[in-house]
Amino acid sequence: MAQWLGQFMGLTHDSKVKELEAALVLAIVAFKRAGEGPAKALKAKALRGLAKRVLAAQRRAVKAKIVAAQHVPTEEALERRAQEIARLREHQERLAACSVADILAELGVKEASA
User: Fold this and answer.
1) Exposure pattern of 68-88 as b/e (b: 16+ CB <10 Å)?
2) pLDDT at residue 16 is higher than 70
């Protein structure tokens, strides 16, 4: 049974993250090209909203990977995946501490709060 609507369209959590990240990059280009005034403020609002969606999708993708890594038939297999699960949990913790401003700063946008 599909867990989310995107799976019916052949999407995975990772493909959804990539799709949203690509849209965010385009939105950043539009934001940087926008002149001052109301147009830039509207683009900044849209940019922050899209960054929120990217962050949420990244968090869902990591959570899905952890769940998939933990669902193995034997304890022995689970022990073999322990290092992968630990790495995914560290990534999950970094994403939990990450904010929209962090994502935008990582992509070179500092003035999106305007």
Assistant:
1) ebeeeeeeeeeeeeeeeeeeb
2) yes
In the structure encoding, which two tokens stand for residue 27, read together?
Answer: 């939105």
Check residues 94 and 111 and name the one with the higher pLDDT: 94
The three-state DSSP-derived secondary structure of the chain is: CCCCHHHHHCCCHHHHHHHHHHHHHHHHHHHHHCCCCHHHHHHHHHHHHHHHHHHHHHHHHHHHHHHHHHCCCCHHHHHHCHHHHHHHHHHHHHHHHCCHHHHHHHCCCCCCCC
- Residue 34 gets the label, from left (phi > 0), alpha (psi -120 to 50) or beta, of beta
Q: Based on the number of CB atoms within 10 Å of its own CB, is 109 exposed (0-12), middle (13-18) or buried (19 or more)?
A: buried
Number of C-beta neighbours around residue 51 at 10 A? 25
Q: What is the pTM of this model?
A: 0.74
